[in-house]
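Lecture notes, continued. The same structure-token format from the folding unit now serves as the input rather than the output. Read the line below as a description of shape only.
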């Protein structure tokens, strides 16, 4: 798969984009192909990098494992090669088999909710939406949906722009989920 949009190198970027690159290196040790692609448009990069504080907020509500399962379910349902493979790597690195995950009740609810947010244009069945609201309350329902929308947006960037898989993820493609 070739990128429809070039993946700029550091020297190709303006000063503002280079500052964002430097911040990514400091925080995460690398700048992925998706992030490099987004650096063509710093406002788009900035918007999608709010994924990190939203993910932290979701983890604070449901725990890290459930948050990972939620994000993975969304990316797998969206058939996003990069994001799905990224979460497969994280799960495998934690000793979990992405093809044979066993969920507790909260994780199962979040996985079903994540998949439903992707299916049918985001029209979540009333019963499922009610179950999530009853389990988490309105504020956390909004938080979970907001995070999911940003996860879906990252999936869309990667898929629509045909961003190539980062080399560090190659070893994890054979174990991708459904």
């Amino acid at each position: 798969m070739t990128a429809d949009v070039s993946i700029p190198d550091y020297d190709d970027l303006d000063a503002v984009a280079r500052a964002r690159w430097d911040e990514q290196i400091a925080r995460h040790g690398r700048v992925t192909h998706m992030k490099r692609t987004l650096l063509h448009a710093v406002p788009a990069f900035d918007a999608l990098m709010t994924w990190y504080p939203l993910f932290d907020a979701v983890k604070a509500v449901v725990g890290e494992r459930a948050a990972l399962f939620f994000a993975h379910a969304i990316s797998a349902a969206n058939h996003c090669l990069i994001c799905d493979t990224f979460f497969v790597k994280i799960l495998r690195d934690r000793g979990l088999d992405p093809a044979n995950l066993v969920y507790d009740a909260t994780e199962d609810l979040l996985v079903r909710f994540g998949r439903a947010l992707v299916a049918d244009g985001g029209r979540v069945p009333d019963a499922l939406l009610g179950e999530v609201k009853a389990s988490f309350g309105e504020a956390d329902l909004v938080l979970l949906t907001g995070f999911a929308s940003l996860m879906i947006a990252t999936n869309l960037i990667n898929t629509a722009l045909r961003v190539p898989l980062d080399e560090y993820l190659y070893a994890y493609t054979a174990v991708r989920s459904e």
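Point for the exam: The longest helix spans residues 126-160.
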